[in-house]
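Ticket #4471: structure output looks truncated?

Reporter: J.K.
Steps to reproduce: submitted the chain below (247 residues) through the standard prediction queue, then opened the result file.
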Amino acid sequence: MQLFVQSLLSRRTLCVHFDDSFPQTVDVQATIAEREGVPGHWLQLLRHGRRLEPGERLRPGDWLRCVSTLPGGKGGFGSMLRAIGAQIEKTTNREACRDLSGRRLRDINHETRLKRWVARQAEAQRERRRPPEAPRHTLDDPEFQRQRDLLPDRVQEAVSHGLTVGSKRPKTGGGPPKKRRAPLWLGAPEMPSSEDSGEEEEEEKESGGEGESQEQGEGTGKRTDESDGPAGEAGGSDQPRKSPSPP
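Returned output as attached by the reporter:
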């Protein structure tokens, strides 16, 4: 059986012949190791990118690739990378990234926005320089125009009529005075108002003033009587007293 194997050292494609119709992977590894001069356990065979097991059977015309094994490291490195990747937050700032040419995406987006703005400004300038178009829709209704012309006259007539009617309307307000309704009695005792208390205070002041004036008049009368008494005695003393007659 014939197989095509890519060499490990020269990277050339080798055509390998086997007596067995379906050789195993171990047989191919031993043949390549003998030709290349390397240990067989250092070699691995790949078919369509998939690693072949040592006891796997091969088919005629297969294309194989011979690669060397790499020394292994500490286990669990992949799980550590996955744990760290879960802790890292996904970035949302794409502006700081670079494209394949090394330019910042921020600069590229800014340049794109600037080009759009310049294009809009040019379009706006052309729109401003363009002359205004004539109105396309026109209204040709004779009845509407006639009603529109008569509308100011009708408004003026309505206002004049309203003013004349308002001036002829009789004035109201000369009727009899309205009677004052008595307050509603709720069964509560009447409380003295401030007006009643003020009237009582004025009456007390007036009565007190009259009593004081009477007392002052009586006092002046007593004083005149007392003054007359001593004066009479004094007048009697001026007259000669009669001596008692002898017995």
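Triage note (M.O.): checked the attachment and the full token line is present. The first strand starts at residue 2 and ends at 6.
Status: closed, working as intended.
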